[in-house]
Design goal:
By secondary structure, the chain is α+β, with helices and mostly antiparallel strands. It is built from seven helices and 21 strands. The longest helix has 14 residues.
Length: about 300
């Protein structure tokens, strides 16, 4: 039974390991996802740091930087970046509790999508836990605006998402995706969508110490009116699908799936984190709730 229908917490059955380079650091990193006890949530562990607390529990408050990725930090100043693709996979596959050990400052970018993380979790297997799954039920609209970018959470009896982007190149143009956030849809329509960028931005990013591991192997790169990747796109509207993937991961730092509708327009990690913080700052706009299997069909 899909996790969205049994309404119980879930963890993985056994450890599973994957390795790759960080898109910004260019550093090779090894990642291991392991089972965790009920109610413990998602915790990252920097195994390369041994002189202080190296555990970073995920929460909305733990996010300290969201310019080009989602970065979290603990009270000891230990940081980890680019968690959003794995977090999206955790959310869509219903993983409530897991320990993720990483031996570097950034998760591996792999192919630039969530597909390798879904394959990693499939290898680990899934185990239902006894505790009921907590949902974040949106009771009142929450909206944030940053220039021409915006994001909102609206009341809804299931997790829905609408995302719209608009880029002044015919390669992208205006793209919209509107779907129910559940495991089946994520697997078929969202997880394989890759991150993307523009060739003219690469040198500027590298001067800033970013994108050192970026390549045509892990990103769709656009140069003017052309896609540089020889294989082209994986799917129709891959660009907006990846932005939706990012949003699923960015919102899962709340520690529970959402009962509500997310609507994003040109929103990135920073706007998504502003939305998370705006929600946490308005406790009357949401509540934690649990659902009995016989009472609801979410997703």
């Amino acid at each position: 039974m899909p996790p969205s229908l049994d309404h119980l917490e879930r963890t993985v059955v056994a450890p599973a390991i994957i390795a790759g380079v960080g898109v910004h650091t260019g550093q090779r990193v090894r990642l291991s996802v392991r089972p965790a006890s009920s109610g413990s949530g998602i915790t990252f562990v920097r195994s390369d740091i041994t002189d202080r607390d190296n555990r970073i529990p995920v929460s909305g408050e733990a996010v300290i930087d969201a310019r080009l990725n989602t970065m979290i930090e603990n009270a000891a100043g230990v940081r980890l970046s680019t968690i959003e693709h794995l977090m999206a996979a955790f959310c869509a596959l219903g993983v409530s509790n897991a320990v993720v050990e990483v031996d570097g400052p950034e998760l591996p970018i792999l192919d630039g999508s969530a597909l390798p993380f879904v394959q990693l979790l499939d290898r680990a297997g899934f185990r239902r836990q006894e505790a009921p799954l907590r949902y974040i039920e949106i009771l009142q609209p929450i909206r944030v605006v940053d220039g021409d970018k915006s994001a909102a959470l609206l009341p809804c009896d299931r997790y829905e998402m609408r995302f719209e982007i608009d880029f002044p190149t015919p390669v992208i143009g205006n793209q919209v995706v509107d779907f129910v956030v559940d495991e089946a849809t994520f697997r078929s329509e969202i997880m394989a969508a890759r991150t993307f960028g523009f060739a003219h931005e690469v040198e500027e990013l590298r001067r800033a110490g970013l994108a050192r591991g970026g390549s045509l192997e892990n990103a769709v790169v656009i140069d003017g009116d052309h896609i540089l990747n020889p294989e082209g796109l994986r799917m129709e509207r891959e660009f907006v699908r990846h932005k939706a993937l990012d949003a699923i991961g960015d919102l899962y730092v709340l520690g529970a799936p959402i009962l509500g509708r997310y609507e994003g327009v040109r929103a990135g990690h920073a706007v998504n984190n502003k939305l998370v913080r705006a929600l946490l700052a308005q406790p009357n706009a949401w509540r934690e709730t649990i659902l009995a299997p016989q009472l609801a069909q979410v997703g």
